[in-house]
Fold these 3 entries.
Entry 1:
Amino acid sequence: MLASVVCLLSVIARRLTPLSIMVRERTFIAVKPDGVQRGLIGEIIKRFEAKGFKLAGMKYIQASEDLLKQHYIDLADKPFYPGLCKYMSSGPVVAMCWEGTGVVKTARVMMGETRPADSKPGTIRGDFCIEVGRNIIHGSDSVESANKEIALWFKPEELVSWTQTNESWIYE
Ligand SMILES: *[C@@H]1O[C@H](CO)[C@@H](O)[C@H](O)[C@H]1NC(C)=O
């Protein structure tokens, strides 16, 4: 009963709430070592900037295999897990935290499917890569994993809260 009242209230709230005061999520995006090697850092950042999302944190690092084992812990029982961690630690990556309404889901749409062959032209993977093991970019698959991944890759003080001057032209 309580649950259904809460659910109803949240539906009503969503109807009444302009986008501008809806929860601004954060997501974790990483340009993988192949994306870095292929000179696609700027191209990828450009797409998120142009969309209107706000950069909250960014670092250029060669991640340790330990960090990547943590990052991909949900895939630990998959046969490709060791290879995936190795590939991801084989060179520098650009780790980023992007912020905005619905950014977790929208970033996934912008990235395309995990398998580049299933990704439409216009998406990042659809435009720039061919194989699943060289799919150039990572993005969190849910708000919950975004929060976990951001906490894993960034210290709180490495994330910046700031006001975008064109925010009122991006959100109603
Ligand atoms: C925000 O404003 C700057 C400066 O006018 C512009 O270059 C940029 O494209 C704008 N961003 C968005 C997402 O519209």
Note: Residues 50, 52, 166, 170 surround 2-acetamido-2-deoxy-beta-D-glucopyranose (CB under 6 Å).
Entry 2:
Amino acid sequence: MYFSTVVCCILVTAIKEVLTIITSGLFTIRTEGCTIPGFSKVTERIKMIVAAPPLTRNCTAPEKLVRANTSHIWVAHEAIDSYNVFREDTFYCCYKHFSAPINLNNIVYSECKEFVTVIKVEHEFVQIECYHLDEVIYTDFFLFDFHKEITTNSSHSQESFNVLILGIESMSRLNFHRTMPKTASFLKERGVLEFHGYNKLGDNSLPNLFPLLTGFSYKYVKKICVQNSIFNVDKCALIWDKFKEKGFHTALGSDSIAGLLGNYEYTLPRIPTDSYLQPFIFETRKLFRNQQYNFHPCMGSKYFYKVLLDYIYELAQHLTLHKFFGIFWEESISHEDLNSPHIMDESYVNFLTKLHKDNYLDRTVLIILSDHGMRWGKIVETEQGRLEERLPLLNILFPEQFKQRYKLAFYNIKHNVHRLTTPYDIHETLLDLLNPNSLDDSKIKERSRAPSLNKSSLFVPISAIRNCSSVGIEEHWCACRRGEKIKVGNKMKTMAATNLVVQINKLLKKYSQCHKLILSYIYDVYLVEHNGNWRIYTAMVKTEPGGGIFDGTLIQDTSRWLISGTVSRLNLYRNHSDCVENEDIKLYCYCC
Ligand SMILES: *[C@@H]1O[C@H](CO)[C@@H](O)[C@H](O)[C@H]1NC(C)=O
Ligand SMILES: *[C@@H]1O[C@H](CO)[C@@H](O)[C@H](O)[C@H]1NC(C)=O
Ligand SMILES: *[C@@H]1O[C@H](CO)[C@@H](O)[C@H](O)[C@H]1NC(C)=O
Ligand SMILES: *[C@@H]1O[C@H](CO)[C@@H](O)[C@H](O)[C@H]1NC(C)=O
Ligand SMILES: *[C@@H]1O[C@H](CO)[C@@H](O)[C@H](O)[C@H]1NC(C)=O
Ligand SMILES: *[C@@H]1O[C@H](CO)[C@@H](O)[C@H](O)[C@H]1NC(C)=O
């Protein structure tokens, strides 16, 4: 019985695979519940857009007055002249270390330790200030490899694997291939699984990150898990807490203050993980803030994303004997510009190659993913761009040992790359990695009997009848094609576009500081689906004042027009929305 089922499955899968090969190119995925059209990396329509040079500048900085190696900080006397120090007897530097004992709202600095030539380093996060004639003439920050002592006492058992999650902000599957081809081929050569039908749940980071981190929807999180902007970790566990309970050494870090809930909109009540980079990132931004961007690419002459990669690598070197769960989020380069990730390709390959050479990847499940694709700029004015926005990167690399030990689980996940999947599924998958004995063949067989339609570990077969509404993807963000798009006639085109603007103005009604918007241009309107009682349209319009470009999905029933999901903003609002705090309203508001 057992054998015949397996043989049958393999046969059916083989046929499916042939079909997939034949249809690849035409379709991204094609299942009963969801068909996503196929695109190649570079098509005629986007050729010019993706060929534009990266916007991110190179990092340069004035000569450093203090320098450091791994154990000491010293004054670079050769640089002292360029700082106009004419009375060396009044010159000294000051070593302070800092930490966040409770959370990022309470960063505490030590007393100043004076030095004039060299000082030994004894802390992880250090600030140096140098004085001349009692005035601060130089400030700098240094990050050292003094990771908190490893307190977990469960070392690696045969069954457990490390989990290393590397987030790359605003990165679609295809943009990863376009901008980071070396990294992509490093992973491909090692048999990475690339998920084609990974669809975002909501517009920006949080609606996609919270489901991954908690297993709950963003709506639920906002209602139940957050009080006065403080996240209640006792009510809603975050995934790293679960790993910590199981004896993993946990780590969290981002190269930006906005990354991974870092005090952007939600304060974590206490330091979340055993190793935590954010206090450092938080303090350095005071110095390296670039006024033009929300995100700051450079820490002096070093890219912030490299600070992050170095941090991860050092942790990995310390933790060779311990179970490790780490989640890290790059944001400073890829958030702002479609083509800037080119800059990072070489460093990511080098980083992964080092982990590979250290045999670290032999014990580690590596997950490289994003929250959504690029949400603004020229690319989202194209159909391909709007699809890519909805289809973020999700790559998972398993070590050989894992594949051998959990054969059926690996067999399943390999075939789920052509299914419709969401961040909820990653959460479930992480829970399985937490309890590896749930992955034994017998358990997986058991669990495969009653597959869940909406939320499922990727280690069990995902149903082909899944569709966007069954997995909780908002209509507007659904990449599955629903019938043919038909360009609608002039009158309906204008009506749909006008109604989109009416709906946006309704959202702004309570905010008297925002201008009422008027329709200034209609890019396109499509009739997506209809029956006798209702019609679904998508419309892309420009409004004034402010020149905002918006894309929305509208439902027209017999008596009224409604918005489905969120209206997306396709260009930057920059400083036009400074008069409102609410992140959702900022998208639409043009301040009076
Ligand atoms: C940035 O650095 C790269 C590599 O060193 C160089 O090729 C490029 O011309 C530089 N770009 C600018 C704008 O200076
Ligand atoms: C770091 O610099 C200090 C002071 O210059 C020196 O004594 C020490 O040997 C250096 N350490 C390394 C690892 O280079
Ligand atoms: C370490 O081991 C001891 C006894 O073996 C146990 O009581 C304790 O809970 C463990 N600590 C952690 C952090 O796992
Ligand atoms: C989505 O799937 C559910 C459950 O299978 C089904 O009831 C619903 O009709 C489907 N929706 C669409 C739009 O096909
Ligand atoms: C998934 O389905 C279960 C049972 O039908 C339901 O309770 C749950 O709310 C659904 N979750 C999502 C995210 O739609
Ligand atoms: C917004 O920025 C632009 C240019 O960066 C500047 O000219 C303008 O005055 C700013 N507007 C406000 C309201 O700060």
Note: The chain is about 30% helix and 20% strand.
Entry 3:
Amino acid sequence: MEKKPFLRSIDGQEEFPLESLAEYSSHGVPLECIIPGIGGKKIRQGKTVWERFAAFFPLEPLDMALSLGEGDTPYLKASPSMQRFTGLSRLFFKNETVNPTWSFKDRGSFFCVQLSVLLGEKRCATISTGNMGHSMAAYGKRAGLETLIFIPRGTPSQKILPMLLHQGRVITLKGENFSELKTKVLTLSRGCGLRTVTGNGPHRIEGYKSLSFELAEQSGGELPDYIALPVSATGHARGVYKGFKELFHSGIISRIPRLILVQAARNAPLALPLKRGEDRVLPFSDFTTAASALITGNPPGGDAFLRLALDNRWLGETVTEEEIIRGVSLLASEGIYAEASSATVVFALKKLVKRGALDASSTVAAIITGSGLKNDPDIFGGLPLPPEMDPVELELFLKGTSS
Ligand SMILES: *Cc1c(COP(=O)(O)O)cnc(C)c1O
């Protein structure tokens, strides 16, 4: 009989059972789910990506009653003007803004609640400044779990509101160093048998694989050469890579796309060393950036992640605050209202083509990770008020604009 799926640290040193509460090995190395016999898995018939690729997930069957309709998001060809702007004639957008709570985090939350419900857990928890907290609150409530969300001081009220409306128990952590608080909360939670998930957790990563499965289907014969995405805790990038790797091992795709990792220049602990070909995290602290979903200044397991990136010849690029805001406008012209963190990819691609690191004939899929609905209006520096008109003024205006 085949061995059951289990967790292993990515340096191969330690193993844990699949249901473990641990997110890191005793040496702080991230964990990954190993699915024995992955090479023999096959795609099935099914309505959703979860059903078609059911054999590739470590829990089977997945309970679709816990789904809010995450995944199976649109894959769109970039407009001619966007192609000209970036220099890429084969550019596509994977629009993750249409997920149930408006970001790709829903793919990971769906998988996390599967495990909690299966194990008969009554509670779940996360530490988040925004999208993950919102997502876990929605999925936790739907699954009948009490959901605790630990947030740092200063989290804007527009992000707390949906967490509260989904009846999450929101707790503000006293203290200033969010990375330290995270580690403390994870240790405390484990001691109390509470499953607290962060952006790098091995179970979330299983959910993120579903995006690669969709890309393999949606791109038809033209699998992208590159997948561009903004990166913070690294869970998303690791999940996307793992999804492709498993499809490759099962013979469904014949090559694995390379990743393009994008960060704000003000906080680029991974993108900057990668750009320079270095394998050590460059910690950032005391910064502010409009890319507020990308604020991990010193990602745990970052060195191991950089080695993975270098081994696979992934590309890194950074963008300025001005480029981030202009990226939001350019995506809006495509009909996609993106979160500032997601819009970082637009200028990153243009710059990579310009400096010759990215071939203009490459097929690139840029993941638009989250919706602009959660953008802080202040990042646009105040919007001009639309003009007011009475009917007479309106008539003059319309006559002036006709022809
Ligand atoms: C969480 C998040 C990211 C970063 O993903 P990581 O897994 O932390 O690297 C990027 N964009 C948006 C919109 C996010 O919410």
Note: The two ends are 75 Å apart (CA to CA).
